[in-house]
Amino acid sequence: MMKRLSISIVLVILPPGLIPKHFNPKVVSPDGRFEGGTFTPDLKTFYFTRKNGQYKNRTFFVIQYEKNGWGQAVETDIRWPQFSADGNIMYLEQKYKERMDSAPAHCAG
User: Fold this and answer.
1) Strands 45-50 and 59-66
2) From what superkingdom does this record's organism come (predicted)?
3) Model confidence over 42-62: pLDDT tens digits?
4) CA dist., res. 100 & res. 89, Å (int)
């Protein structure tokens, strides 16, 4: 009698050092929905818009993750940024900012 050999392989690939956590919408919009946003490649800065509660017109904000938590959202003049995969370039419509020294592009002047 022949025995059947069955092998199951399960591959789990996790990004190094990252543990997925739920991003609480109340952090960026305590009054309800926010319109949309984008993270920097290092996932430590989030640019987003609000148009609810006290914000009757679309208002742009940025918030940073520091000391194991999200800080206070502050208004910004940066609108709809996009980033290169390495985080060295921030694209702003038809303009861009390159990273200076060791500061991420979103912090460069």
Assistant:
1) antiparallel
2) Bacteria
3) 888 889 888 877 878 888 999
4) 10
